[in-house]
Specification:
single chain; alpha/beta; Rossmann fold; 122 residues; 3-stranded parallel sheet
């Protein structure tokens, strides 16, 4: 119940991975149409808990006129955006080789440290 103390320990970092182009857009615009987006958008707005986002998109998504603006908005809000050719090579739709592993070490390294170190993951 809302008036009861949470049975869960406090969150030290939010990781949104993999994030679709739709999810990235909603986070950048502050559109909270489900509980997960609401929670992460509150964390972005509150700036008390680090947020990491890994956009899992293709080249067609990145050519949308507003794509760069969405990434800029997240970065300006203090979100650590794990993105770029050095992280995850992008392909045209349906041309990526199957079975590519997600870039796990980019997430697990900052998250395996103490909560104080995690705060620096932005």
């Amino acid at each position: 119940m809302p008036h009861e103390k949470s049975p869960h320990s406090p969150v030290s970092c939010y990781v949104v991975a993999p994030a679709s182009a739709n999810t990235v857009a909603k986070l950048a615009l502050g559109l909270m149409d489900n509980q997960a987006l609401t929670t992460v958008c509150e964390a972005i707005g509150g700036q008390a808990v680090p947020v990491v986002v890994f956009p899992h998109v293709n080249l067609a998504h990145t050519r949308q006129p507003v794509w760069a603006g969405h990434l800029d908005a997240l970065r300006t809000a203090g979100v650590r955006v794990v993105y770029g050719e050095d992280v995850w090579r992008l392909f045209e739709p349906r041309e990526a080789p199957p079975g590519r592993p997600l870039p796990g070490p980019r997430f697990s390294t900052p998250l395996s440290r103490s909560p104080a170190a995690v705060a620096g993951c932005r």
